[in-house]
Amino acid sequence: MRKLHVFVYPFLAFAITFAEPCVPAKKGPPLPGPGDVVFEVQANSPRFEEMARTVIAPGQFMASDRALVTAAVSGQIEKINVNEGDTVHTGDVLAIMQSQSTQLALDTKQAELKEAQAKLENVRKLIQQALNPPNSNITEADKIFLDEEVNEEAPKKELPPPPPVPQTAPQDDEKVLLATIDRLNKEIETLNQSLVSLTLLSPLDGIVKAKTAVEGRPLNAGDPLFDLISLNPITLKAHVPQDVSSYIDKMITVWATPAGSTDIKVQGVVSYVSPSIDPATGTLEIKMNFPNEKNAIKDGQAGEAIIKTRKSEKVLVVPKQAVLDEAGQKFVYVVSVNKALKTPVDIVQTFGDKEVGINADMRVDDLVITSGFDRVSNGSFVKIVAPTSQPQALTPSPGST
Q: If 232 and its partner were Cys, which of 274, 289, 292, 395 is the partner (CB 3.0–4.6 Å)?
């Protein structure tokens, strides 16, 4: 027994010395099973394209202009020509007022003016008489000989001294009356303007948003009567991130879509850029004006602006037909080893009719399936094939863009 042990131990040592080490098997790509289908597809890598950064800014539409029409004087409404919701133009008659107090004040001032003008005429006559008194001591016979040569021997006829010039009281009266007339003319002009203002005119093109005027109801000066708003153009107020705040300028072209009306897309311009960043939100307020001829966009309606800034960035460009849609979510299929991987994307720009720029979690060397995707789903096995000289027309899946 002891001799057997001696023989076995050297043999084991020899075997251990020359045995091959254990190497783990390399893990290859997933292989399709017997029941898996491999779809032939075509795929291309996207390319980088330099473009202006586009910002989607939610906001709210508001009237571009607003006017509150009030009573200029005390009185009452005699006639109303418009109702709430009516369209009005600049100069349209909204209502006509009556004001007995204004008319009475005007009649009084006109009577005072007439009296002051009559007094002024009398005072000026007195002043004229004082400056040019009549010479009652010269007879008609004296006037005949005024042009004849004076006889030196004839005694000179002494004339009585002229009457004294009156004191300055008439001149002072004239100044007072002139000041009074000037004041009365200004007051009458103001009252006439008040009477003209009894005809209430629209100061803008727009819509009657609210009407508080009632025919026959007594009014005080300043009482609100009509609230008018202008919706053409209409203004969209929105906020953009501060990292693009330095790249947005007034009068740049923008686009907007009202909430719930995706079929409406209007083009406008930036009309206002806030000079400061809101510290609470870290955003910049801007206002944009858009045409709204049919008043399809309403005051207070939510909206979304598409703003192309001056800030440049690179985007991935892929064929338009490669971008699919499922329940409103855009995506592409990227080839990952030998499988199709569904990858969400956002379309940020169109390049002609055949290409779009996208933002996505992918690299520029990834392969995007450009045809054959109508049979592919997420995780399907795929095989990339070269395009034929006459590729077969494929029908994109429903909702593709």
A: 292
